[in-house]
Amino acid sequence: MNTGPPAWKQAHCWMSLHHTVRISCDAPQTRNGAIIMTKPVIGFIGLGLMGGNMVENLQTRGFEMVVMGRKRPVIDAVTARGNAREAATPKELAETCDIIMLCVTTSEVVESLVYGDDGILAGVKPGAVLIDFGTSIPASTRKIGADLAAKGAGMIDAPLGRTPAHAKDGLLNIMAAGDKSTFDKVKPVLDEQGENVFYLGALGAGHVTKLINNFMGMTTVTAMSQAFAIADRAGVDRSQLFDIMSAGPSNSPFMAFCKKYAVDGISDLGFSINNANKDLAYFLQMAEDMGTRAQIAEGTSSNLQAAVNAGIGGGNVPEIFDYFMTLEK
Q1: Which tens digits make up the pLDDT trace of 287-298?
Q2: Which residues, in sequence order, are bridge partners of residue 175?
Q3: Chain Cα centroid distance, residue 249
Q4: What is the average pLDDT score of the chain?
Q5: DSSP string of 140-206?
Q6: Cα–Cα distance between 82 and 164 in angstroms, integer?
Q7: Residue from 163, 218, 156, 215 nearest 194 by CA
Q8: Of the four listed, 65, 72, 103, 180, which is most buried by Cβ atoms within 10 Å?
Q9: Paired strand residues for 155
Q10: Residue 37: is its pLDDT beyond 50?
């Protein structure tokens, strides 16, 4: 948990065409004609399991929210909690918000929200900041950041670690990157959402780090799931294999997730094969953009895609074990 004075005691200023927003815990006031507000207005697009819980956490902490999402019951729940309204378009949302947060599935969706005719870029205010919490292609992130900068706005890429349950309690891991002054401006808000907020440097570094992290994690899950399938064919007890391997340096939380499914029949990782397949494709695209090749990732990606093609993409990643159990020469 965060300790010390509340984050909003750290005063930061938001400059726009119309007003200055000073982030503090003080009551609203005016100074030299400028409006001094207690907290920035936050726009949030993407109200899935993670995004919906992030919005609830922000509402609990007293933020005014403007939201967009595809699930009517979630939008209704947000507005029913009060101090929130729904925007009709990303442009409308951007026109009224100091911080715009995205928690959506792909780079393609992010780009459509930014560059559409009624998109964020058409409505963003000078001094506003866009935060992308998703897992996106770094080259796309950097392009969006440059286009926002041309309009006087900033961008932070801030992919997430941990689960929707952590999001609801403000205990996420956040891998943030971008201009340091822009990061400092939004850090009090990030501190309300994350137990651990890491600053990683220039824009795009957060998405690079998240893709590397997911490449490593999903490769571990894929390898361990296949290890269990091979053991089964060889007549080796899967539970005993886990006991032996987990007693040595191969042990990891991901191995435990695989064991829960392959041995105990419990699937609770909370990350689908479809999502893992998308992230590995992004990792490979990133490597190509760097002028290199990631052959280990190619193998992981090939297996994830095969599992998707087999119709099990909606299952959690350890369920790729079922695909490996069906493989023949």
Answers
A1: 999 999 999 999
A2: 198
A3: 30
A4: 90
A5: HHHHHHHHHHTTT-EEEE--EES-HHHHHTT-EEEEEBS-HHHHHHHHHHHHHHEEEEEE-SSTTHH
A6: 21
A7: 163
A8: 103
A9: 130
A10: no
Contact (Cβ atoms closer than 8 angstroms) between residue 289 and residue 139: yes
Distance CA 98, CA 64 (A): 11
| DSSP states of 210-253 | HHHHHHHHHHHHHHHHHHHHHHHHHT--HHHHHHHHHTSTT--H
Q: Please enumerate in sequence order all residues whose Cβ is within 8 A of that of 50, keeping only pairs 6 or more positions apart, or say none.
A: 103, 133, 160, 164, 167
Residue 2 pLDDT? 45
Distance CA 9, CA 321 (A): 50
pLDDT at 16: 39
The helix (H) or strand (E) run that includes residue 262 is: helix 253-262
For 173-221, what is each residue's pLDDT tens digit?
999 999 999 999 999 999 999 999 999 999 999 999 999 999 999 999 9
What 8-state DSSP symbol labels residue 316? B
Task: Decide the pairing of beta strands 194-199 and 172-176.
Answer: parallel
Residue 31: pLDDT above 90? Answer: no
Residue 4: pLDDT over 70:
no
Report percent pLDDT > 90 for the chain. Answer: 86
Residue-wise burial string across 274-304, b where 16 or more C-beta atoms lie within 10 A, e elsewhere = bbbbbbbbbbbbbbeeeeeebeebeebbebb
Dig out the tokens for 95 from the structure: 């026109």
Instruction: Record the tokens describing residue 237, joined without a space.
Output: 């007890």
d(CA 152, CA 180): 15
Please name the residue ranges forming H helices in 16-154: 49-60, 72-80, 90-96, 107-115, 120-123, 138-149
Contact 116, 88 (CB under 8 A): no
- pLDDT exceeds cutoff 80 at 115: yes
Residues 6 or more apart from 151 whose CB is under 8 A from it?
A: 121, 124, 126
- The Cα–Cα gap between 69 and 74 comes to 8
Cα angle: 190, vertex 195, 200; to 5 degrees:
60
